[in-house]
Design a protein that fits this description.
single chain; about 500 residues; alpha/beta; Rossmann fold; nine-stranded mixed sheet; six-stranded mixed sheet; about 30% helix; globular; binds zinc ion
Length: about 500
Amino acid sequence: MVKLFIATFGTESNTFATYPAGKADFLDGLWCKTGISNAPVSPWSGPAKVWYDRAAALGWNIVEGLHAFAQPAGTLSRKFYEDARDSILNDLRAAGPVDAVLFYLHGAMVAQGYDDCEGDLVARARAIIGADTKLGIELDLHAHMGQTLVDSADLIVLFKTYPHIDHNDRAHDLFELMQRTLSGDINPTMALFDCKTMGLFPTTRSGPMPRFVADMIDAEGQGGILSLSLNHGFPWADVPLAGAKMLAITDDDPKYAGDIAEEFGRAFFSIRQAAALEFTSMDEAVEIAARSQGKAVLLADVSDQTGGGAPGDTCYMVRAFLDAGITRATFGPIWDPAAVEMSFQLGLQAKTLLRVGGKSEPQSGPPLDIDVEIIFLKREASQESDGTEDVPIGDIAVIRCKGVDIVLTSIRTNVYSPSFFTNHGICLTDKQVIGVKNLFKHTDIFAPLVQTQLYVATPGVCQPDFWRLDFKKLCRPIWPLDDDTLLALQN
Ligand SMILES: [Zn+2]
């Protein structure tokens, strides 16, 4: 009987955000030490649930470690990282000899003193299990991939879609590759190619990325290619491994893995400009929204999106709505537990002067001091994700100021679906403008509701003008910061 160890440990660390991250961020996300079956269904628990269910159906002996995942945030405290890492490693050691290990990691975790948390964790796991045990990892495509990770694992599979809608599909892929590896059907060999590129590359809009994803999927299973993954990389981290990489897994042929990784990596480099997400200035975006008619215009406040590690409490965009005199608008979320609690104390329909946002770090900017009416309150609220999964968003208060309905949350979150608003008393069909603190994940699901979607370069720790960020450790050259990237790739 196969003995399998599974664990989950992930977050995405924005090293340009100065507010600290630690256990509280995981308690607001996923924190489960009693087996993944006891964890709520969510994108964070999905991969381990897939592995658990498939292994259980095969009658495998399953041993579980910690399952923990957090919204992206600032750099993790060293103590929290080491404690959580050692919890997983101690459980792995206590499990005794195992045939296989499957980890669901994000891939872009940075802690104080650790620029490559995943490389550190997986190398230590390999030292415990020895060379013969098979180790597989699933990563978000916004990862920092390095040779330590590749050398320490047998199989690595990344998401292929952005917005991320395939975390469970890729978990199935990895499980099947692991099964075939354990049975001796395949001998996976991996290679990584550095594309010397950074940026944001949506896969579901028009442009070259849907074709690139389809080409990867078409090639898998052909001529000894077992798996292909494009790591887009996470741009808001000043670490040596940041940037896009192409990973190929072949069957017992490391040289071919290298050739295929380079072929696909160069193909991606050639489409990088056309594939990259484009941004609009805030002045232009608000002007477009203010004169729009018909269906709503959706503006994404990309630089303060919690999905990129920002705190989620800046008020620049909602201030611009109010200054422009837009009166049929909604905006959310703004992370402000204190304002939420004050709203609960005051109660529904109360009218008050309230200080909103602008609290958690220097780049949170000034707060908003506004006269509001409290129009909706709910404890332990949630929103739908992927049609079925309910993601908790803590306690919420909806406040109204001059026709702008603002959603305040007690935990850091972003908008997964229209239910973020409609679950909480907000009608979207009568709005002229919808503002979300998101980067891109809302795009497809909001498309039927809106006439235009703009990605707005607001101030904040995820601002998309990369040349304004103070990179010190990032490996250069890298596009779009450097002109000679192509020369470096041609060598
Ligand atoms: Zn991601």
